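Standup notes, protein team

Yesterday: finished cleaning the Gossypium anomalum set.
Today: Reverse transcriptase Ty1/copia-type domain-containing protein structure.
Blockers: none.

Input for Reverse transcriptase Ty1/copia-type domain-containing protein:
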Amino acid sequence: MTSRHYTQGQADHTLFYKHSDNGKCCILIVYVDDIILTGDDSIEIERLKEFLSLEFQLKDLGNLRYFLGMEVARSKAGISISERKYVLDLLSEVGLLGCKPAETPMEPNLKLGTDKDGEEVDRGRYQREKHLEAAYRILRYLKGTPGKGLNFKKDVNRSIEVYTDADWAGAVNDRRSTSGYCSYVWGNLVTWRSKKQSVVACSSAESEYRALSHGICEGMWLQRLMGELKLSYTKPITLYCDNQAAVSIAHNPVHHDRTKHVEIGRHFITEKINKGEICVSYLLTRQQVADVLTKRLSRKMFEEIMGKLGSTISPVEARLNGINVVIGSIQKYMSCKGACLASIGPDQPAEVVDDAPKNLNPGACLYTRTQSMLSCDGSHRHTRRLCPCA
């Protein structure tokens, strides 16, 4: 790639890019033997395809539809990414394809330790009974949302925003805190992480401050990546924290009693603020979307935050009347409750088109007319049946 004047990304070493004289860019992303080509320089993309086909045995699969377990679908609303096939394969592997779905991935206020979490179970699967039950609940949640994913849309917003949160002393055994952050670029969620802190925090302000430091590192990485690709963004990067003490320490580092345990992080954050690279702002706890990464939430709060994160039903799982879903050569209409999906393979991901029949009532149940169907639990095939909601 370097022989063709491509530059390897320093923020991401799997990325190669080339800027042309007319301001356009061609980007290559590689993972082992899977490659994505993108950019607005269509001429250079075709040249790169020819070069790669001469150097390697290459198969051009056309527009991106399936990559590393992720299904990609396009519509006028934007780009939707989900892992529907991976989720269904996972449920089939553990024998939970027909289980009862759960509304949330974890029970509210659940605390997991290691000493008193029930009897030991098969160590080849899990060590403690409650831990195994918690893992099964996550799978039951995935059963109810196999096609749920992220939707990326165009937005006039050109900012980078990072939400940070911490669950102070949440670990039952060692009382360490958990940091969580999620970042938005141009109004779309792009990265998120939840990680146990390496030391015990003496106060909630300290744990939130450490989480704030992790979020700043992520924002700096995004800033570096966008700089390499010459993508514009509004400066400074905005960080949101729902702990007033942590925000106060970030802006006024003369809190010696509260900051003596986080001296390095304090100097790091103060330096970035003074340079104008970041702006730390306070927001209300009910507006903190990073809570989903650090706490066990109720169904209402969980669904509200997931909506703010951009989580949406993929086109395959769409339950909106009048949506026409095309799967390879199979055309079908979902029932009003989304029951019984068509048989879908990894080489036949779905697309949404806007040519639904005009002669159907808005409230009518649009049931499938395909010849090959799966039941709701995937246990058997059938050719046709009445809609369960009738």
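Follow-up from PR in the comments: The chain has four domains: 2-60, 84-110+126-146, 156-311, 315-390.
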